[in-house]
Design the sequence.
């Protein structure tokens, strides 16, 4: 086990004893950890390991049952929601509207009335801003990329991405990873929940291994996978 | 505390029997209605008790909502105090506007009781407990309200010759009953862990609705010919005494039922909490 | 235009555009409303003279039923692909969303009423004998009364099992005073008895609207984030 150096100061996110229960089911069973700024984290684990719940708590969508969060120095994620980009497993887009129309609407929610910004993020994820087709007629891969574009709209400091590569062909997925790597180099902190760990090999700074609602390990590379 | 419960139970049983004796034997027979009128000693105390319970439900629900946040809690405190002061001053300032038969002092007493009740609940119950209090009072209140709605027609049939009339008090009580039944339905069907919040919001809406219901039906009825003219006039002081005894007995009974329901709910939540904690302690291998 | 108003406007135009493209709600609502009018015509003899006395009640109960169908659709669109989460992670205020949704429903239900009213007039041979202009405030305030609480309770029933049935269970008891006011006001105006006036009912409806609009705005954020 190659334990990374966690002795650095001033983490961008710290959680203490995070517990989330849905009735009797415990989705998170006491997670205490901290994350540094400008890193790309891969969150790995089986279904039901609590990865999505952790992201949703960090995004302020669900309150934890117990435990403390500190994000950019604030206890309530809602206070710093401008600094987040959140991408969920579903697309979070309106199927009947085109990509640009979707982004134009979501930009307004952040107080942005910037056509150029919408076109810029669409281009950044490798799509054509002039595409008129409604999102419902996109391929799964295109929809995922448009969803990522939506998460990037407000130029967030922290990106929370839930399964961004699912159903995306391998080449596009590699491009997305490259894009994420570039954004990390610009100072963004990125969390990627994924089943396709190998895609992040070499790109992620650290892998967080979750199992049954707990973080079981943090490693620099994927060698832990074989031992687990 | 454990001993207080059976003692209160015995006391309530004794009081209820005494009240029953008073209502059936001691109270004078009404001149025109005869013995049927004695149902009045159950009908009216049930109604008062139900209204009181719904009012406690309203206060508890408000507290559940405002106490989630320190700031709104402080604001709510001052609003309650301000309302209390207003209720103490207003009846003297606008004496002429008071309906006949209502004294300023009785309005002031109600106002002080309201403020007192609010802070009493706040002192006795934690934030989570106010939700349990709201649930308990709504359930028991619905039961007492049902008693009112059943005993009303039982009395009306021989006296008025009809089971039901869309009189303002009857109709308002029915609507009130509907509102709180829908509250209980919501609690039952809510799927998220946030049932208390939703329920509290609905309880506040229901309470806001009550004066509107009353005024609308009052005006509705005054516009239309009433099939019967009920009551009016003064009540025999002996009857009033029996009525008050019955009310005290009913209050004790309601308190007893609420208490045991509250204890049941508390135990249920403790069990859930323990099960939840056990789930946390299970080894990881067992969960896979 | 301040930011919250801008978001309300953006959400409203987005909803209207989505509805225009999919026509989910409006089609089912229109057909349902037509069915209600026809079924009512069979249940209550439209030729009878007493029909005028109950016409106000018929019209509003029909509107209420049709509105429930529309209100149930309000949030369905936001649940597909969990778009509501995208709103919830954004800094946009919850009340902007609420006002947009309520206004959107107000428009839908108004369109519906505008289309249903002629049918009622034709089927029941209605003529207004009182001051007809008073029907306008009654219609506006009454529709808002249904829609403001309906939007709120529809959001509330998102967090419940059997969502569609919850809405009328929560909405109808609370709406009783408003419904009574609308019905009585409409009947008073239709019948045109000079000894009575609809003014009290209009004032009561306005009070109801103010009270519950305030209540909804105060509590919507709590309900939206209750997960």
Sequence:
């Amino acid at each position: 086990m190659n334990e990374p150096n966690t002795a650095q100061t001033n983490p961008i996110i710290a959680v203490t004893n995070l517990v989330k229960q849905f009735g009797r089911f415990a989705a998170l069973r006491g997670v205490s950890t901290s994350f540094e700024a400008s890193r790309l984290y891969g969150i790995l684990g089986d279904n039901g390991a609590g990865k999505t719940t952790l992201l949703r708590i960090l995004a302020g969508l669900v309150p934890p049952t117990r435990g403390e969060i500190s994000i950019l120095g604030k206890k309530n994620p809602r206070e710093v929601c401008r600094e987040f980009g959140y991408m969920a497993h579903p697309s979070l887009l309106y199927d009947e509207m085109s990509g640009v129309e979707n982004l134009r609407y979501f930009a307004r929610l952040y107080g942005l009335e910037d056509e150029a910004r919408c076109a810029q993020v669409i281009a950044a994820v490798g799509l054509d801003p002039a595409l008129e087709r409604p999102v419902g007629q996109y391929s799964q891969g295109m929809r995922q990329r448009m969803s990522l574009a939506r998460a990037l709209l407000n130029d967030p400091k922290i990106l929370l991405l839930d399964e961004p590569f699912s159903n995306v062909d391998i080449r596009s997925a590699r491009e997305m990873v490259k894009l994420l790597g570039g954004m990390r180099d610009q100072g963004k902190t990125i969390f990627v929940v994924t089943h396709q760990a190998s895609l992040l090999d070499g790109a992620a700074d650290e892998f967080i291994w979750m199992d049954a609602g707990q973080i079981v390990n943090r490693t620099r590379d994927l060698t832990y996978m074989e031992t687990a | 505390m454990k001993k207080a419960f059976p003692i209160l139970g015995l006391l309530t049983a004794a009081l209820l029997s005494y009240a029953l004796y008073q209502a059936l034997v001691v109270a004078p027979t009404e001149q025109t209605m005869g013995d049927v009128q004695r149902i009045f000693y159950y009908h009216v105390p049930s109604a008062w008790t139900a209204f009181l319970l719904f009012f406690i439900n309203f206060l508890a629900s408000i507290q559940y909502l405002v106490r989630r946040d320190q700031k709104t809690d402080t604001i709510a405190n001052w609003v309650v105090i301000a309302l209390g002061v207003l209720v103490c001053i207003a009846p003297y300032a606008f004496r002429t506007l008071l309906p006949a038969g209502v004294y300023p002092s009785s309005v002031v007493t109600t106002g002080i009781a309201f403020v007192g009740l609010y802070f009493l609940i706040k002192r006795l119950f934690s934030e989570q407990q106010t939700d349990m209090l709201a649930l308990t009072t709504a359930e028991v209140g619905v039961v007492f309200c049902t008693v009112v709605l059943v005993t009303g027609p039982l009395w009306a049939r021989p006296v008025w010759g009809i089971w039901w009339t869309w009189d303002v008090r009857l109709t308002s009580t029915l609507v009130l009953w509907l509102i709180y039944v829908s509250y209980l339905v919501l609690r039952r069907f809510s799927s998220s862990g946030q049932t208390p919040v939703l329920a509290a919001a609905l309880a506040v809406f229901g309470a806001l609705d009550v004066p509107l219901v009353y005024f609308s039906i009052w005006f509705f009825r005054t516009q239309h010919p009433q099939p019967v003219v009920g009551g009016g006039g003064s009540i025999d002081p002996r009857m009033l005494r029996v009525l008050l005894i019955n009310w005290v007995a009913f209050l004790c009974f309601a308190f007893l039922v609420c208490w045991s329901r509250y204890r049941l709910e508390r135990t249920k939540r403790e069990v859930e909490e323990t099960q939840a904690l056990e789930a946390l302690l299970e080894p990881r291998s067992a969960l896979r | 235009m301040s930011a919250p108003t801008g978001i309300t406007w953006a959400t409203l135009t987005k909803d209207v555009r989505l509805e225009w493209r999919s026509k989910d709600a409006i089609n089912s609502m229109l057909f349902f409303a037509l069915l209600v009018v026809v079924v009512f015509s069979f249940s209550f003899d439209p030729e009878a003279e007493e029909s005028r006395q109950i016409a106000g009640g018929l019209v509003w109960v029909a509107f209420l039923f049709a509105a429930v169908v529309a209100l149930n659709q309000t949030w369905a669109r936001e649940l597909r692909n969990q778009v509501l989460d995208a709103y919830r992670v954004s800094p946009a205020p919850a009340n902007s969303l609420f006002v947009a949704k309520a206004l959107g429903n107000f428009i839908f239900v108004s369109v519906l009423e505008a289309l249903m009213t002629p049918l009622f007039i034709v089927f029941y041979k209605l003529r207004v004998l009182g001051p007809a202009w008073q029907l306008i405030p009654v219609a506006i305030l009454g529709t808002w009364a249904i829609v403001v609480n309906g939007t709120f309770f529809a959001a509330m029933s998102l967090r419940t099992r059997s969502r569609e049935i919850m809405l009328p269970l929560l909405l109808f008891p609370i709406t009783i005073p408003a419904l009574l006011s609308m019905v009585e006001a409409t009947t008073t105006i239709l019948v045109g008895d000079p000894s009575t006036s609809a003014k009290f009912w209009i004032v009561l409806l306005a009070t109801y609207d103010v009270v519950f609009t305030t209540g909804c705005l105060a509590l919507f954020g709590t309900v939206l984030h209750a997960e």
User: Anything to note?
Assistant: Residues 76 and 158 of chain C are 9 Å apart (CA to CA). The mean pLDDT of chain C is 87.
